[in-house]
Amino acid sequence: MTLFRIRATICPLVIKPIYIFIFFLLSNCSLCVDPHFEACSVPKSCGEIHNISYPFSIEGLQQPYCGYPYPGFKLICDNNHAILKLPDNYNDYFVQDISYPNQSLRVLNRNIATLHSDSNISCSPPIQNLTLEREGGFELDSGVADLFLYFNCPDSALKKLKSHKIGCSNGGTMHTGSGLALSGSDSNLRCGQLVRVPVEGSAVESGNWSDYVNMLKKGFLLKWKASDCSKCNASGGKCGFNVTTLDFSCFCPDRPHEVRCNEGYSLSLSLSLSLSSF
Questions:
Q1: Residue 196 parent element (H or E)
Q2: Would you say 56 and 68 are in contact if contact means Cβ atoms under 8 Å apart?
Q3: Alpha helices (H) along 46-105
Q4: pTM, 2 dp
Q5: 105 with 84: CB under 8 angstroms?
Q6: What is the pLDDT of residues 185-219, one digit of tens each?
Q7: At CA 92, angle to CA 89 and CA 96, rounded to 5?
Q8: Which helix (H) or strand (E) holds 249?
Q9: How many Cα atoms occupy the beta-carbon half-sphere of 254 within 13 Å?
Q10: In sequence order, what are the beta bridge partners of 49?
């Protein structure tokens, strides 16, 4: 009995310093937050577009690894306008709204945005056809339709399709009815230039061709295709990418993970708190 009592007395004296050591070790680790997690934890804003985060990042304001590493997902903030630059396109687009739950964003051609509703597009319009790569990160929303703008058309075409006539300006001179706005292409037309512009499908269905500038100024929806971020978000992480391997990363307080934050960090913190009660 005496020996047992001696061991019972000594044992806590030996083990308790070990508990104290483990507690301080885990406490120190809990204070070490991964810099990727910190950098991507604070969304940024540009003008009226707030909380910009994965899959987008703002050039110069956010780290590249906080966004999707493919063309188009790095936005530019210029004069309080978030600008989307799509690959293989000469057009820049103002971002009007971002819906993260729907994975969509509404955009407006930058050159169209400067037009007044009662103005006319130049007979040599500053807009060009929108080209989206099949394997790229964006696609048109199912509710988007094409508006076909024909410019410098012959009189015969204008007379035949007089309800579709639109005006355009050339060097300050108005050319009333020198263009056509159609909901489909016509290979028989012999016009000087054709521009295919995406617009809201409801605008085309209205058939109010004389108001085509307002059709364009409403913008259109794009859907993006990027790695799923839901599991990472649900686990408390921040989505991003490994800029070297271009693999998806879930940035967590302890370190980057492949899909979601594991339980190791929270368990270690809970364990350290539990040990402190000894």
A1: strand 193-200
A2: yes
A3: none
A4: 0.76
A5: yes
A6: 888 888 888 888 899 988 788 777 777 888 888 99
A7: 130
A8: strand 248-251
A9: 18
A10: 46
